[in-house]
């Protein structure tokens, strides 16, 4: 089992020749408070340095839609006489006869919804298709792992992540629809384009910011108790803390020893694929390289 906060701090203090504490998180000793702050900062920085297997998480999203009816008026952004608006938020878009593409909800009332774009036609009791297009990121999201984003329902990789320029091109250009979902990460949400169908299962992997584990098994993004443990190698934590403490004090520090240990821990953290220098052969299996989007002709 890895060393906890108190044990890591004690080990570091013994190695640099200062008095070891009896407590860390609640210590009133300025020197131990500095060590505590340096250790939390070091752990957060280390989380960003590499895709550690302990922090590699999977996130699943099930898309949501609502098919209902309502009244719209040309030149007005309000949809009225909706039987039920429960569940609708500003993360949802709307589509109906006369809707401007990619109209988004800006406010929700008991039986009304206001959009960010006015309708181009009038209709009473017409079908209204609402769809959630922005989905919140996990609370422990640090960064995405590129190339892991899939539409599992349709067995297609998601198209993205898209830049802000590409996103506006899709939303504002002449051609804005296609068989595959596009996505980008913005506003702490996963944004989809075009609005997805109901109950599509989307998946992706990400790096978690929760590098600390409490005694009860819950995770968090910093030490708060002396009994908390990091997911990282204890020798790496001590060596990194020593380097940062010496640097903060203006003392000489051995960065090479830390970097050598960091490289070793990264290499041993998880397995890596075997790379070949020989010319590769084309895959004989079905893949996105040899199967078109959509159905086969005549199927």
Features of this protein?
6-stranded antiparallel beta sheet; 5-stranded antiparallel beta sheet; alpha+beta; 24% helix; 299 residues
Q: What's the Cα radius of gyration?
A: 26 Å
The amount of beta strand, in percent, is 25-35%
Query: What structural class do the secondary elements suggest?
Result: alpha+beta
Q: Which word captures the global form?
A: elongated
Number of helices: 5
Overall pLDDT metric? 90
Uncertain segments of ≥5 residues (pLDDT<50)?
Answer: none
How would you describe what is shown here?
By secondary structure, this protein is α+β, with helices and mostly antiparallel strands. The chain contains five helices and 17 strands.
How is the secondary structure organized here?
Elements lengths: L4 H12 L13 H20 L6 E7 L2 E8 L5 E2 L12 E4 L7 E6 L4 E3 L7 E10 L1 E3 L4 E4 L5 E2 L4 E2 L6 H9 L9 E5 L2 E5 L7 E8 L3 E2 L5 E2 L8 E2 L3 H16 L5 H15 L30
Antiparallel strand pairs: 1-14, 2-7, 3-6, 4-5, 4-7, 5-6, 8-13, 9-14, 10-11, 10-14, 12-13, 15-16, 15-17
Helix pairs in contact: 1-4, 2-4, 4-5
What's the quick description here?
The protein has 299 residues and is of the alpha+beta class. The protein has helices at residues 5-16, 30-49, 164-172, 234-249, 255-269, and strands at residues 56-62, 65-72, 78-79, 92-95, 103-108, 113-115, 123-132, 134-136, 141-144, 150-151, 156-157, 182-186, 189-193, 201-208, 212-213, 219-220, 229-230. Helix content is 24%, strand content 25%.
């Amino acid at each position: 089992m890895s060393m906890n906060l108190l044990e890591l701090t004690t080990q570091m203090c013994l190695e640099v020749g200062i008095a070891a504490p009896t407590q860390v998180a609640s210590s009133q000793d300025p020197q131990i408070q500095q060590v505590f702050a340096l250790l939390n900062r070091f752990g957060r920085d280390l989380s960003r340095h590499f895709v550690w297997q302990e922090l590699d998480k999977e996130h699943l999203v099930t898309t949501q839609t609502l098919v209902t009816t309502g009244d719209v008026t040309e030149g007005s952004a309000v949809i009225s006489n909706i039987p039920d608006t429960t569940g609708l938020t500003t993360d949802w878009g709307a589509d109906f006869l006369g809707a401007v593409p990619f109209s988004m909800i800006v406010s929700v009332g008991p039986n009304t919804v206001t959009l960010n774009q006015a309708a181009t036609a009038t209709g009473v009791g017409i079908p209204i298709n609402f769809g959630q297009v922005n989905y919140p990121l996990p609370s422990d999201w640090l960064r995405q792992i590129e190339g892991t984003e899939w539409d599992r329902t349709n067995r297609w990789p998601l198209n993205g992540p898209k830049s802000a320029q590409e996103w506006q091109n899709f939303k504002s250009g002449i051609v804005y629809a296609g068989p595959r979902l596009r996505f980008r990460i913005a506003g702490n949400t996963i944004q989809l384009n075009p609005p997805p169908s109901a109950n599509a299962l989307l998946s992706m992997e990400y790096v978690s910011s929760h590098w600390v584990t409490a005694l009860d098994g819950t995770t968090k993004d910093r030490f708060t108790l002396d009994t908390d443990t990091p997911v990282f190698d204890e020798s790496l934590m001590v060596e990194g803390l020593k380097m940062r403490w010496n640097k903060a004090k203006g003392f000489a520090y051995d960065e090479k020893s830390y970097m050598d240990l960091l490289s070793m821990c990264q290499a041993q953290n998880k397995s890596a694929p075997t790379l070949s220098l020989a010319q590769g052969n084309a895959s004989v299996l079905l893949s996105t390289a040899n199967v078109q989007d959509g159905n086969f002709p005549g199927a």
